[in-house]
Amino acid sequence: MASKARADANENKRFPDGFRILQGEREYITYPERSSVRVWPSGDAYYYGGHWHSAVEILLCTKGEIIYETQTRGYHVTEGQILILPPDQYHAMTILENSYRYLFLFEPDVLNTMRDMPLLNELFASPLYLSEDPELQKQAAEILLKVADCYQAREQMWNMRCNAYFMELFVLICNHMTNTSKLKKSETSTAVDPELMNTVLTYITQNYREDITLEKVADFTGFSKFYFSRMFNSYTGCSFIDYLNHKRISVADYLLVHTNKPVTEVSTESGFGSIATFNRVFKSIHGCSPTRFRKIYGEY
């Protein structure tokens, strides 16, 4: 087993197209330019100490054994098996000698606009360990290896292609779990109209810079704010204000990384009414200030 001493060497480690940046137990994932996907194939034995990040993490073991420890249980992932960790899942990883794995990380923002979010929310409620169905594991591994090939080739629109493969993977898993009664079929306590909710999400995307409130959007749908709030939470898996804040912060992330606009201007363009609110929400999501975030990721 790789020694604990090797963990320290992995903090803030330089990779060919980015860094692994640790601040305490929070890891900031860096990605190639204009992408939200990273693929790390490796046969090196090492130990990653306990940490968490906003990205979805998928492990495909192609040889040997990799050990994951989460707050609730441990996983011994062996050849052909796959482990999917939801965002913000605390975990540690040990790659044993003579093992090989692919590690896939991607930001889940794109999933938030999917009309099948109730199924995806249940899928991401806890780590998903594909270890008992050889055919499912085989099909899932084939999709993930396509992601790895696409990532390496870096052909035109490669980031979108990688995300398309991730979508294919989750469709495969959701259908399998539904057919085997391991996932409920869109049963919610509040009836949800997918067409209406998709219109609401589009409205938020187009108007996030405005003074959007729960009451205004509820009026837009024709429902009371209380019924709409339950319906929105049932469909997206989060509250209206959390969804809106994450949308605004995702815009701020891009501006902080790819422009040199002042933080106050970034705050305004992201839809926040005050710099104080922007700083508070940003830190609650990222665990650091906008200025610190820019120092870590900024291009300027």
In short:
The protein has 300 residues and is α+β, with helices and mostly antiparallel strands.
SSE arrangement:
Elements: H1 5-10, E1 13-15, E2 18-23, E3 26-29, E4 37-42, E5 46-51, E6 56-63, E7 65-70, E8 74-78, E9 82-85, E10 91-95, E11 100-106, H2 117-123, E12 128-130, H3 134-153, H4 158-179, H5 194-207, H6 214-221, H7 225-236, H8 240-258, H9 263-269, H10 275-286, H11 290-297
Antiparallel strand pairs: 1-2, 2-3, 4-11, 5-10, 6-9, 6-11, 7-8, 7-10, 9-12
Helix pairs in contact: 3-4, 8-9
Helix content: 40-55%
How many distinct folded domains? 2
| Spatial gap, N to C terminus | 41 Å
CATH topology of the largest domain: Jelly Rolls
Element-level helix/strand string: HEEEEEEEEEEEHEHHHHHHHHH
Q: Assign the CATH architecture of the largest domain.
A: Sandwich
Name the CATH homologous superfamily of the largest domain: Regulatory protein AraC
Features:
300 residues; Arc Repressor Mutant, subunit A; 4-stranded antiparallel beta sheet; alpha+beta; 5-stranded antiparallel beta sheet; disordered N terminus; Jelly Rolls
